[in-house]
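Section 4.2 – Deliverable D4.2 (structural model, holo form)

The reporting period included a commitment to supply a predicted holo structure for the target in complex with FE2/S2 (inorganic) cluster. Inputs used:
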Amino acid sequence: MIRALPVLASVVLLAGAGGCRRQPDSDAARWESLPPVDARDLRPLDVFQRIEDPAQRSRALFLETSRVYLHPRCSNCHPDGDSPYQDSGETLHNPPVTRGPEDKGVVGMECTGCHQEKNLELARVPGAPNWHVAPRSMAWVGKSPRELCEQLKDPERNGGKTLAQLVEHNAHDALVGWGWAPGSGRQPAPGTQAQFGALVAAWVATGAQCPSEEARP
Amino acid sequence: MSIRVRVNGVEQELDVDPEMPLLWALRDVLGLTGTKYGCGQALCGACSVHLDGQVVRACVTPIRRADGREVTTIEGLSPDGGHPLQRAWVELGVPQCGFCQSGQLMCAAALLAKKPQPTDADIDQSLAGNLCRCGTYTRIRAAVKKAAGVPDSK
Ligand code: FES
Ligand code: FES
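Output (structure tokens):
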């Protein structure tokens, strides 16, 4: 994803230079009307109220939450293979662990062989209750916001959750909450868990609409 | 705080900081120096021991996690060095410097307890985090298979 960005940027520049008259899609136009936000923060809920159409607002809300879902603190453990990632998401977990039959590692290399129920600052080992990797069906790495959105609404690929359960999980789960308190100089997910939970709840309340394939936060 | 923990079958009561790494308690308080300190950051596997049968890295396990539980170290793997893995290790001359080997053995023992007939992939996955600077990996794998009675076709 990250490596693809400069490529995408140059495609956009080339398209512009070539006089392409493609209209920006309406999602993007709505998005541009929102105030800019620091990479470490989430836009507060009330700024989305300026988008009058609930469906449009829903899409904008999802794009905002995708900045959390696809942040390495969250997506590193929703990998596209059998090993989680670490750091900024470009390196595989070291030591080389594999998910095993229950997504908690293999015998001798279980997640909880090293990860405790809270961060261990002394050795920089991150920790939270129930440390494990998301099942393969819940892989997020490499997904577009739209793909992720469709996936999160599908109980087959969201851990069997209703949308209400999804809101609850995002707003209160302790392992999810680790994303904002990762310790040892790791960059936290943007905003706070409470803000994130409120944005997800608002997305559900506005019909849980998905943004267009091209839309990016 | 006093921690009660059974180590290699012997009940111990330790008056230590509950955040003390289990590795410190084993080596410095109980004098069980078979478990090694390699990195102190959960990166090498030299400090692998069993906590209620599960492999944990003692350098990052606070001693409070072991309270009321059972720890097995290399000294307790067998009463007389006769665990099938230990015998295979000797027969094949697995160690070079030996520093990583107690961790390798504890990890391999947990593997065989759960999967008595492991495949090469099982062995590689379970031992992937136990580093050996001397590069004895192929002998380790051969010895695990020998102990398990799995023919080594290579
Ligand atoms: S000393 Fe514990 S993993 Fe290296
Ligand atoms: S035998 Fe020397 S590190 Fe493994």
